[in-house]
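hi! just following up on the protien thing from before. the input was this:
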Amino acid sequence: MNIFVMLQPLFDMLKWLLPLLVLVIIKTPWFKGWFGELLVRTFAHYRLDGQVYRRLHNVTLDTPDGATQIDHVFLSPFGIFVLETKNMRGWIFGGERQAQWTQQIFRHRFRFQNPLRQNYKHLKALEALLSVPPEHIHSVIAFVGGSSFKTVMPDNVTQGVSCIRYIKSFQQPVFNEAQVSVMVKALESGKRDSTLTTHYERLLICVGAFRCWPISARREGQKTDPRRTVEGAAINEVVQSG
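and the predicted 3d structure came back as:
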C-alpha cells in the first residue's frame, strides 16, 4: 500500500493545525518580545552609523543577585545607551516614579512593571562592569506594537523609531574612540554566552518579576495568579518544559 496514501489524513490534519500553531506562537510573550527586539535592531541598522554606535544585543550580565538580560546596548563617543523594548498594544498609562504602569485593551486593564525601573538594574550592571560615570549611561525605553501613551512620558520613553532620534539627540562627545573600543571588548568578555541556560534563567526572572494581571480581579478582592493571564500561562509553560 502506498505510504503517502496512508499518511494523507495526517497531512490533511496538519493543513489545519499548522496555521493554528502559528497563531498561538505569535501571541506568546516570547514571540512578542523577540519581534519587538527585531524591530529595534532593524531601526538601528538603518538609522545609526555602525562605526559610531557599536551595538550588542541580548546581553546577559551577572549581578549580585543572579543575572540580568539587556535587550540592546549602544556604545558611542556620545555615551552608552541601554534600550529596553516593549512590544505592547492598547493604551499605556504611567509615570516616571510609579512602580507599576497600566496597559488598557478595550475594557481590560493590566499592570506591568515600570520599564524605567526595570532598565535601572541594567544601567547599574553596566556601570559596575565598565566603571564609567552613571551620567554617561542613558536609559531608553522603546515601545513598539501600536500602543499609544495616554499620560505624559519622559523623553527617554519612546515609540517606534523615536528611540533612534532620542539617541542621536546626544551630540556632546564624552568618550574617545579608544575608550569606546575598550568598553566594547570589556562588555563582550564580561557578558555571558548566549545559551539555553541563560534563556531559561531569563524566563525564571520574568516569572519572578511578573506583575501583569487584571485590575478588575483585584477590585473584586480575588487573588489572581499571574500564571492565569495569557502572558503568565505562556511563560509558565516554557519554564516547566525547561
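Helices lie at 3-26, 29-47, 115-130, 162-168, 177-190, 196-208, 215-219, 230-241.
The mean pLDDT is 78.
cheers
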